[in-house]
Amino acid sequence: MIPVDPHTGERLHGTLTSEAHVIFGNLKLLLEAAGSSLDRLVQVHALIYDSIEYDVLNRVYRQYVANGPPARTVWSAQIEAGFKVQLDVIAAA
């Protein structure tokens, strides 16, 4: 999942912090529409553009996934179209 405006489909480039907030906000909406929630995350794979941003991602992550965090991996990699962060998640229904 990359940061996209849920109403227009526009790709939203920004800082790692702003991109992560957009992704988690969209993820929350999608999960709730499917009858699930962020509390039901089972696994999270995160890609960040630079490992120096690991602590930045953690600060945002803890705002959305505070209770019983799921299994998670974080990799530093070049991300599609120059984004700063990308998430791939699995959630229980």
Topology, pairings included?
Blueprint: H1 16-33, E1 41-48, H2 54-64, E2 71-76, E3 85-91
Parallel strand pairs: 1-2
Antiparallel strand pairs: 1-3
Helix pairs in contact: 1-2
Can you tell me the CATH architecture? 2-Layer Sandwich
Radius of gyration: 12 Å
Note the gap between the termini.
18 Å
Question: Largest sheet at a glance?
Answer: 3 strands, mixed
Q: Averaged pLDDT, please?
A: 96
Kindly identify the CATH topology.
60s Ribosomal Protein L30, Chain: A
Helix content: 25-40%
What is the percentage of strand-forming residues? Answer: 15-25%
Number of helical regions: 2
Described by the principal axes of the CA atoms, the overall outline is globular
The named CATH superfamily: RutC-like
Class by alpha and beta content:
alpha+beta
Name the strands of the widest sheet in spatial order.
2-1-3
Domain count, please report it. 1
> Number of DSSP strands?
3
Low-confidence sequence ranges: none
